[in-house]
Amino acid sequence: MNSNPTNRFYLILILGLLTAIGPFSIDMYLPAFPDIAKGLHTTISQVMLSLSSFFIGISAGQLIYGPLLERFGRKKPLYVGLSIYLLASLGCALAASVQALIALRLLQALGGCVGMVAARAMVRDLFEVKDNAKVFSTLMLVVAVSPIVAPTAGGYVTAILGWRWVFALLMIVNALILAGIYFLLPESKKPDPNFSLKPKPILTSFASIIVHPQFYTYALTAAIAAAGMYAYIGGSPSVFMGIFKVSERQYGWIFALIAMGLIGSSQINSVLLRTYTSEQIIRVALACQAFVGLVMVVLTLTGFSDLFVTIFLIFLFLCCQGFTFPNASALSLAPFGHNAGSASALLGAIQMSIGACTSALVSVFQNNTALPMTGVMACCATGALTVLLIGRKIICQKARQNAVEQEDVEMISTL
């Protein structure tokens, strides 16, 4: 890894932008939901299904790109995937029905998710394992700009030019990222012609990763905790614009304000890592997140939750997410230096598939209250904490078992 500060800055910037493709594609069109529903003669609930299809596309696509990134290196799959994203964005801008938009958003996700897989894999390629959590925290600074810039920009573009121009803006952003990849991003892994793309070896590789206790514990913890954030993303247009009657522009500013919690906590996390371990930070963050989620549900049921209380509690909820995700991601990928692409793909696929389910649940249970959103958020935080506590016990038991087996081997070898 080149220690040149300028090179490191550009490297992390491009990796952050690649990671942000998915969030940016989600956040920018959220303020346009009412206009899309009106323009395509449908309902906001139907438009929300285009968000679920996007999550499904990201989940499936990451499993495809994992093996491709191992076989062809990191950059060639990036060019192919982002080109698909570009064409699908053009299709979204020209969509004549909500069904077409749902299908094109699926295709857009299948192309754009390559950036998320490649970025995580390249962090594992280019940085030492002990620095991965800090690098992921820095990447989150770039990623977290998306919820600040994207909804605000999307709200203004929708109000001034119309919702179709939101997808035109996404095309421009994608083109700039492609240029950055070509000129600034190094190839971090040479193509491996010996890596088989046949289904059986690929499935065997995935299976060897997913049964590793450290992987499934922290991958599931990260995914379920992140699903609470996706429930908020999917439900917030209905809650803020439908229930609290804020405008598209006001919604963009509210979304940006709440995102500041994610940014701030992810950067505080880098400081805390000097004193505390990732495991310690995750445990406390999830306990706090579960508590905040339960408070949101109680206040929603009792009718004591107004606009400002809702904003404040969601802000706290996302603050906890900023501590959980970088640490859990780093811990789940740590054992897999030789096949980081496949491990990264599995991590992302698990995260987005669970996110798709929670987003769809919020839409299905929509009842003109905030309860579907807050209820799913609380369940996700509580579930993530439960998975972490159970998984840690399994990891510790496995470690003790391995230590005993090693002692037995050493005793036999001395006889």
UniProtKB/TrEMBL annotation:
Membrane topology value: Multi-pass membrane protein
Keyword list, A-Z:
Cell membrane, Membrane, Transmembrane, Transmembrane helix, Transport
* GO BP terms in the entry: xenobiotic detoxification by transmembrane export across the plasma membrane
A single GO molecular function term of this UniProt record:
xenobiotic transmembrane transporter activity
Task: Please tell me where this protein is predominantly located.
Answer: membrane
For the keyword Transport, the answer is yes
**Domain Major facilitator superfamily (MFS) profile spans what residues?**
11-395
**A Pfam family in this protein?**
MFS_1
Subcellular localization, per the record? Cell membrane
Superkingdom, natural source: Bacteria
A GO cellular component entry from the record: plasma membrane
UniProt keyword Cell membrane, yes or no: yes
Please give the start and end residues of each transmembrane region.
9-26, 46-65, 77-96, 102-123, 135-157, 163-185, 206-233, 253-272, 284-301, 307-325, 345-365, 371-391
The similarity annotation says:
Belongs to the major facilitator superfamily. Bcr/CmlA family.
Name-wise, this protein is Bcr/CflA family drug resistance efflux transporter
- Organism of this sequence: Niastella yeongjuensis
Give the source lineage, highest ranks first. Answer: Bacteria, Pseudomonadati, Bacteroidota, Chitinophagia, Chitinophagales
